[in-house]
Amino acid sequence: MDTIIMLLPVYVAYLLGTASPGPSNMAIMGVAMSQGRRPALALAAGVITGSLCWALLVATGLSTLLLAYAQAIVAIKVLGGIYLLWMAWKAARSAARRGEVRPLPVAAPGSPGSLYRRGLLLHLANPKAILVWTAIMSLGIRPDAAPSLLPLIVGGCALLGMLVFSGYALLFSTEAMSRGYRKCRRAIEGVFAVFFSAAGLKMLFSR
Predict the structure, then answer these.
(1) pLDDT tens digits, residue range 191-204?
(2) CA distance 186 to 91
(3) What are the extents of the domains in the chain?
(4) Strand (E) positions, 58-187?
(5) pLDDT for the residue 70
(6) Predicted local distance difference test score (pLDDT) of residue 54
(7) pLDDT at position 33, please?
(8) Which of 16, 47, 60, 114 lies deepest, with the highest CB count within 10 Å?
(9) pLDDT digits over 113-156, tens only?
């Protein structure tokens, strides 16, 4: 019972943070609406892997070393910000194009492997992920915590991440969502352009 009490706020915090709109979720939504279920699931798998990478980094204590070197975090933020701005430019260019419906350019058509790599890069380029995982570990790990608590935190949050990211892929790849995308393509891509621009600029200029 004590373990459940300690894990519950961790799982709730992770679920709220993961399910809230962010660059990874928005990219999965866009690919699901424009390209379908399988490409979206491939992108989601890359995002999930990126989240697990950050989780293992925090769990092994390497995050403390990374956070100690401000240059490393700055480099990640710059690369992540530039990547998001590139995605914003691609979305804006597509939104300005009339006529033919084309796949949302936040993740251009490609093999499942290429989409997986794009999802992985997208999540690894977000320095907020390591800060979120650090906060979650701090919330769940106490001096008197049992050794089994750490794998329960990582495993449980990994399962929640799979459900959330895969859920976005499945939900937004439905026929209703696809019809909505075809009908409002330019407006949707315009929203994506604004969102990725704001996220990229915030990442570049935030301290």
Answers:
(1) 878 877 887 787 77
(2) 9
(3) 2-205
(4) none
(5) 56
(6) 83
(7) 85
(8) 47
(9) 889 998 898 888 776 676 677 777 766 666 556 667 778 888 88
Angle CA 17–48–173, to nearest 5: 85
d(CA 174, CA 77): 34
Kindly state the tokens that stand for 175: 């026929």
Residue 161 contacts residue 36 (beta carbons within 8 Å): no
Lookup: tokens for 13: 């915090």
- Taking the C-alpha atoms of residue 95 and residue 186, their distance in angstroms, rounded to an integer, is 4
CA atoms in the 13 A half-sphere facing the CB of 118 = 27
Q: Tell me the backbone φ, ψ of residue 11, rounded to 5 degrees.
A: -65, -40
82 CA to centre of own chain: 16
Q: Residue 130: phi, psi to the nearest 5?
A: -70, -35
For the cut 70, the answer to whether the pLDDT of residue 9 exceeds it is yes
How far apart are alpha carbons 152 and 148 in whole angstroms? Answer: 7
The number of residues in the chain equals 207
